[in-house]
User: What shape does this take?
Amino acid sequence: MLNLERLRTLDALARHGSVSGAAEGLHVTTSAVSQQMAKLEREVGQPLLAKNGRGVRLTDAGRLLADHAARILSQVELAQSDIEAQSGRAVGDLAVAAFPTAARGLLPSALAALRVEHPQLRVQMREMEPADSVRGVVRGDFDLAVVLDWYNRPLPLPEGLAKQELLHDPADVAMHVDHPLAGRTTVDLEEFADDDWVTWAEGEFCHEWLMFTLRGKGVEPRIAHVAEEQATQLALIAEGLGVCVAPRLGRGPVPERVRVVPVRHAMRRHVYAVWRADADRRPSIRAAVDALGAAGAAVVG
Assistant: This one.
């Protein structure tokens, strides 16, 4: 009989296209992937992988079995959803992905509440950028993801996903206390056309949003520094090394030499949970979404 975990490994290889990608998606080592595939090849009695340059590719038999594996795993997930729905209890394992400021400002209280209210539910959280976590939900690497988009830049979602809004997260502009606009009650982004900017890494959703928004206002931003962590960005601002957009979720203490000023036409991030629609009946999904919603309401309040 075919081993389910080995079929899961084959499915990951087919989806990710490489041993390293499958290992990352399954949160195991590359040697573990190779070992599982070697055992699966012995079970079926024919090669499933062939060398392809420095990597590997699926053989015809490998592709055939991978197609079956995807259907089998889908049926297993459906069975899990049905059994969990029948029991009416949030139990078992739940894999959650969240973008960094949500992982810091939203997930801790939500996970703590789930541990108290549903002690038989084991939740594992991983910090991840929105686009990557959405792909992870589609692939089945994660059961649930906390993602974001901006008021003027929606995050594309593929079909087959359900979503629920958790909160609206206002964003301010952070600047040094001696900046000419630091004493204002509101500002416009165009007023920072001549400033150096501190921003997120190129390719990240928030960085692309900032470039899109500033250029839409006729400002070609001068990027002076790049830092993924908001605390690092604010530390740079505290030394007078530029300005940055500072969302409020997960912002933490603002350094004494930094002022944060709201934008006159409010900038907001929309934070929401996404999951596969075919898992909607799972009590663990509903419990997690409810806990995240309560955490979001507490942040807004």
Observations:
- The first helix runs from residue 4 to 16.
- Residues 44 and 99 are 40 Å apart (CA to CA).
